[in-house]
Amino acid sequence: MRFTPQFLDELRARLSVSEVVGKRVKLKKAGREWKGLSPFQQEKSPSFFVNDQKGFYHDFSSGKHGDIISFVMETDGLPFAEAVERLASMAGLPLPAVTPDAARQEQRRRTLHDVMELAAKFFAETLASRVGAKARGYLADRAISPSTQLQFRLGYAPPPPERFALKEYLGKLGVSVEDMIETGLLVAGNDIPVPYDRFRDRVMFPITDLRGRVIAFGGRALEKDVPAKYLNSPETPLFHKGDNLYNHQTARKATHDGSALIVVEGYVDVIAMVTAGFAGSVAPLGTALTENQLALLWKMADEPILCFDGDKAGQKAAYRAADLALPFLAPGKSLRFALLPEGQDPDDLARSGGRGAIEEVIAAARPLADMLWSRELEGGNFATPERRAALEARIRELSNGIRDEVVRRYYREDLAQRLQRTFSPDSNRGGFAGRGNFRGNASRPFQPRGGGSANRFGSQGFGGGFGGGRRGSPGPTQIPSGPYQAASPQLAASPIMRGQRSAISRREALILQSLINHPWLLHDHLEEVAALEFAHPEAHKLRAGIIAAFANDHHHSPDPGAQAEKMRGDIEKSEFSKILQRVEGGITTAAVWGAREGAARDDVLATWHQLVALHRQYHSLLRELKDAELALGEDPSEANLAWLRDVKARLAEVDGTEALIEGFGELSGRFQKSV
To answer: 0.90 cut: is pTM over it?
Structure first.
């Protein structure tokens, strides 16, 4: 036992309960006791009491009761040993050493921690100096503000030809070369006569332990022609990269306070996530997720969310993490997986779409069982009984790898049900017989969910087979490549499911073009414009720019053409010029006459009302489509099937009605389409 009863009693004697609690709760004297608002839940009247004489606190609102150690454990989310260490530091009480060797090792580690702290200060000072101008420019390009740089203690290692800047700085402070080598700050070896600085011309990211002490660094190169874009400290007495997480200390406190635990891939991703409001974000340290890091994650949250890039590399990383976690699953302990839009990482998404775009991705995170099932079906051809048997064998092998007996049993049941829904034929009748799978008669091919057809239920409508063969022909069952998604192509392509993509939809682009070419619309429709639901973050930004420009006296000009020219000129001069180009690129037809310059006022108004009505109706139907598909997945009833068909029919009507606005504009010299 590291902490003897005598040591703990001494700790409690040195620190009063009111002193410890008072750092977090505003206390008022109430007779012999102190009282304040509960730190454990919201309340308006004080029900939290502290008694220094008896050495305990009691919270009547939550029923929690304890001493100074349990209070720190509860409020800071610390394990027992760390809570004791923190209180001992507050009390100035030396921690007991288990053995003389342990005491010497602890003293040695303290010395190395001091060296790393000095190095962190050197890098931070260099970033703030004239030498750090290039690094500050890089951070500004990544939207990392000066205050965020201070928050994460970012720094800069001087560029070549300087090779000994840190070494000389630490040497002047009395740090030995041996300590610099042992902490990994210098590169040394038998073939290196003079040790030199490991990090040069790199933005520096300090890596801390759970106490906030610097234990290592990650360096991001600013030049392209270097062997490694990112360089981490080597293994040292302080640092084992597979046992630590970037931003671990802050994320642990944030998750204890209710934030979601989100795992991303890099330092900048973590900083972008935290800046966007996701304080419980962490990252592995230059490696794939390890067993020890997984254990750290599960200490903070039961179901951490792993957020990967949406490309093939991101999918492979997700599959590796799923395989890693599988043997260690326990009741209540699992993972969820959030895949970003292809071509974007969390930093890109945070800068383009902000918190809302990230929330969409996180909300669509998929359970571990879904990821495993998706991988096993991906791109597979299960046209023969032997191939389906091989799939079943692989599924059984996966579930057998789970060590916990209860979790293993539930995984077997879940995967067996998925196999049953996907492959079991119904020889008696056609009809819907499982979530996402329409069973035909016995002569039809098996139909795994998510097949490559025109809709979720097959290219020939409900009951159609895969592979494009004749109706009823026993063609091969081909599972398409790409991640499995139990959703119709319409819904999968919508902003609700896909997150934020790079292209602005045509309808949104036409609405924005109408406002630019006809600013007078804002005079009567400003509130309507401000309330429109745009899916793309750049559409939000351009709308804000248009409204700001309109406020700059555009509506006072009597000439609509002059208004449009002034509006476009202001937009092109501002930060929105590139967005304007993408808006114009999103308009794939020139036939929507009422959105173009020179259109008659009545035509503009008619087109505007049509665009806005269709836009609102489309977004409303997309939300209803999602609800209908989820309902059908949970309960494959005829009523839910009819609901889904009805929503799809109404969506098709919207698509058809939208075509009517093309060419609309008789008063502008165009022929008006008949409705």
So the answer is: no
